[in-house]
Amino acid sequence: MAAELVRIHPRNPEPRKIEQVVAVLKQGGIIIYPTDTIYGIGCDLMNRKSIERLCQIMNIKPHKLDLSFICNDLSHISEFAKRIDTPVFKILKRALPGPYTFILESSSRVPKILDVNKKTVGIRIPDHNIPRMLVEQLQNPLITTSIKDDDTIKAYTTDPEEIYEDFKHQVDVVIDGGIGGNVPSTVVDCTTDPMTIIRQGLGDIEQYL
Questions:
Q1: CB 41 within 8 A of CB 30
Q2: Which of 182, 174, 180, 176 is closest to 155 using CA atoms?
């Protein structure tokens, strides 16, 4: 059965359509959705079978699991990261929502995913209403990774209809929130002192340091 293509307004998401997608997530579904950087693929963090399926789709081995969590606000982050030092918290407060992934020490609330204990977790709060509203209604983070393209010229597919054609027999919902970006998030490791920029992507984190 082919995935459903759901068109949702990126700035003013229709609540009924958000509820429709959240219902799929609660049933263990895999979705593709827009962010403030590139399109992502993800599922409910608390659904082990969904995570197993996500890893199969993306050909990720459990011991190399390196996925990010999409949260909807700073209080949500505090549930899944250990005590965040004041200087780090101030940076997060200034930079988020935004195109950044922050690597933090994981808290005891982070589930033992696929028998792999992760000591750190990548946290995102995208500056995009669709994923934040999904997480708010789901009441769990999305565990997620980026949609990459096999093309050697373009690293990321930006057209949701093209993404749909590529993934319609592997996922349950593809959200069309308009043309996506092709630059990933900037990844910042907050477990080092000073912080380390692991990947320079969209956004200038230096302005917040």
A1: yes
A2: 182
Asked if 81 contacts 189 with a C-beta cutoff of 8 angstroms, the reply is: no
How far is the C-alpha of 11 from the C-alpha of 25, rounded, in Å? 21
Closest CA to 96 of 104, 39, 113, 162: 104
**Residue type at 96?**
L
User: Do you find a cis peptide bond into 13, omega within 30 degrees of 0?
Assistant: no
Token pair belonging to 157: 């597919």
Instruction: Show the tokens assigned to 182.
Output: 């092709």
Q: Residue 202: name the closest of 186, 187, 189, 188 by CA.
A: 186
Contact 141, 69 (CB under 8 A): yes
Which tens digit of pLDDT belongs to each residue from 155-196? 578 899 999 999 999 999 999 999 999 999 999 999 998 899
- How large is the angle between the packed helices 129-138 and 15-26, nearest 10 degrees? 50
Total-model pTM: 0.93
